[in-house]
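Board notes (copied after class):
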Amino acid sequence: MASVFDKVAQFARSPKGQQALRQVTTKAQQMAKDPKTKARIDDARRRFSGGRGTGGTGGTTPTV
């Protein structure tokens, strides 16, 4: 019996799967260029990284 992953991989290789992947890729690229999407991503990034003190970029590790 084929696993779920095998079935997904088989679909991705099929002509219908290739067409679906192209459509999803095109839509994702359009969304990535949208200023509203960029603003939402920046907002989420700010909320998740802010307030914890470990932003992960350019910070130093605390010494005990």
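Comment from the instructor: The chain has a mean pLDDT of 85. The helical segments are 4-13, 15-33, 35-49.
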